[in-house]
Amino acid sequence: MFDWGTFRERKEFYTGAFGAAYRFDHDHHHVHLQSRELARVMEILRHDMGFLLLNDIAVVPAPGHVLYDTLYPGSRWDVTYHLFHLEAHQRLQVHLLLADGETLPTVGEWFPGSARFEHEARVKLGLEVLAEKNLVLPQPATNPNLSEAPYPAELHQWYLFGLNHRLTRHQWELAVEADHGRVKNSWLQTGHWRRHWEDRAEGLNLIHMQSMLDGLVPEGASLTNIAWVKTVEDYFLWRIPERAQAVRMIFMELGRISHHLSVLGDLALDLQIDEGQRVCREVRERSRALFHFYAGQRVATSVGAFGGLPTDLPPGWVQEAMSFMRGLDGALTLYRRMVAQQPMALRRLKLAGISAQDALEAGLTGPALRAAGVNFDLRKSRPFYFYQDIDFDVPVGVRGDAHDRMLILMEECHQSLRILWQVIDNLPLGAFKIDLPGIEDFNAGTLPADAWQDWWKGADRAWSAQYTAVEGVNGELGFHLVLRPEDARIWSLKIKTNAVLLAQATPQFLRECPVADLAPALTTLDIQASSVDR
User: Fold this and answer.
1) What share of the chain is helix, strand, coil (3-state, %, to 5)?
2) Could you tell me the sign of the dihedral formed by the alpha carbons of 454, 77, 209, 409, in that order?
3) In a 3-state reduction of DSSP, which class is residue 473?
4) DSSP per-residue codes, 248-313
5) What single string gives the DSSP state of each residue in 423-453?
6) pTM over 0.90
7) Which of 71, 196, 209, 288 could serve as 298's disulfide partner, Cβ 3.0–4.6 Å?
8) pLDDT-derived band of residue 532, with 50, 70 and 90 as boundaries?
9) Tens digits of per-residue pLDDT, 408-458?
10) What's the CA gap between 252 and 225, in Å, rounded?
């Protein structure tokens, strides 16, 4: 778990290691360097300092922003590498300052899972074009000598699963090369539902962006919503009331349960266990009813407001939540008997695994990483609100296969239930919104410019960017946000989702998987197009 003593030790260590290039701002470590220094620094960070996870790469245009023009004149781009130290639970942001005409060096030698991030960064820099190639089946070489045996690849089977195939669920396309019914290679094609949220965010006000992000992870919209408002609150160092923190924790865990039940229901459908799907659907609908009771919406729920909550819990809501929680425990037990302990399910799910080392090199987080045996959960590693005071466990697997991922999802529902009972039993009283002049106007999108300037001066930001991440439904969910100093609008935004890395690592997961069992393997990975094509 995060420890402030270790944090201070690391601060002193980074100061001695990087000297004037090191900066500490808003509880984050920063290192600023030029492109010629990147290889040496990444080598040190990976092999000497033990940073194993590259969470994201964000690109921010520098010219025109007063803080960049003041601190680093002449810089054209700020390319930020988000690194995480699993043992010390520390984040480090490496800022690569690029001038006009400079290219982006690769860090794939030290972080093999960075390919997709680097491609997105080069698109932002104008070095590459964002265009997905058409997914076609490769043509294997044939043996021209007909008197000899054919090449092995000539005997392979080739499959192309399009958008309309039930395996892809209208999310992406998948091409598979198989030998004797087992996958040898695969290609996952995304980009069919590209939303360009990051590009469209530039110049938008924060309220508008909040409503757009509800579609990032539809079943986990409450977590996305709270992560977004928390990012803005961290930007200004606001501390919301204790009651608002507790209620947000409740809605985050309810969103996690709703999402996991949706995945488990789809998994039961893939295994042709209709009763398992029915159980998940009924319980999920009850969780949606709780969101409807509070916010008036069942899926795209705006449960967070800047500075706290939009409204307090209505009378009778806690009683309805406790009734749902009592029913959830029995439903999970029933699902375990009907699906998890079913011999056919056990046989079909012991596949599509990945080792802990491969998962770390791919940069994965969330259930896929924990199923591989790595104990990493941001609610423990970087606790926020009251998570450090809650008694709950982080389930981990052994083989990293589809069966372990299913068990992780089920056990995380149980742990979310433990969190809900403890928070509701100790639900604080008092205000549900921060006492700050202008906060109501800010949530309504009508904050005067002079009030915004007062907030900006009060934040006293030595650096312009804010990165806030929470444990999302499918891994780390974070926002790298830069605001305009002159008004409450976005200068730059980068959205971090784990689905991007899962899509990139799909060929590793599916290798040697039977073609007939691709559906349950892909369902437990939960690669949503809305999160990849953001």
Assistant:
1) 50, 15, 35
2) negative
3) coil
4) HHHHHHHHHHHHHHHHHHHHHHHTT-HHHHHHHHHHHHHHHHHHHHHHS-SSS----BTTB-SSPP
5) HHHT---S-SB---TTHHHHHHT---HHHHH
6) yes
7) 288
8) confident
9) 999 999 999 999 999 999 999 999 999 888 888 888 878 887 888 777 777
10) 9
Between CA 229 and CA 231 the distance in angstroms is 5
Query: If you average pLDDT over every residue of the chain, what do you get?
Result: 86
Helices (H) and strands (E) in the chain, counts: 20, 11
Query: pLDDT tens-digit profile of 474-518?
Result: 999 999 998 887 777 899 999 999 999 999 999 999 998 998 889
Hey, how many other C-beta atoms are within 10 angstroms of the C-beta on 87?
9
Per-residue exposure over 442-471, b if at least 16 CB sit within 10 Å of its own CB, e if not:
bbeeebeeebbeebbeebebebbbbbbbbb
Distance CA 213, CA 228 (A): 8
CA 18/CA 13 separation, integer angstroms:
9
Distance CA 249, CA 162 (A): 39
- Provide CB contacts within 8 A for 458, sequence distance 6+: 236
What does the alpha-carbon distance between residue 70 and residue 487 come to, in Å, rounded to a whole number? 18
- The number of angstroms, rounded, from the C-alpha of 49 to the middle of its chain's C-alpha atoms is 24
CB 209 within 8 A of CB 201: yes
In angstroms, rounded to a whole number, what is the distance separating the alpha carbons of residues 399 and 178? 23
- Can you read off the two tokens belonging to residue 176? 């598979």
Q: How far apart are CA 219 and CA 531, in angstroms?
A: 12
Q: Widest CA span of the chain, in angstroms?
A: 86
List beta partners, residue 470: 477
Grouping H, G, I as helix, E, B as strand and the rest as coil, residue 233 is: helix
Q: Is the dihedral of CA 105, 110, 112, 117 positive or negative?
A: negative
Contact 23, 462 (CB under 8 A): yes
CB 80 within 8 A of CB 58: yes
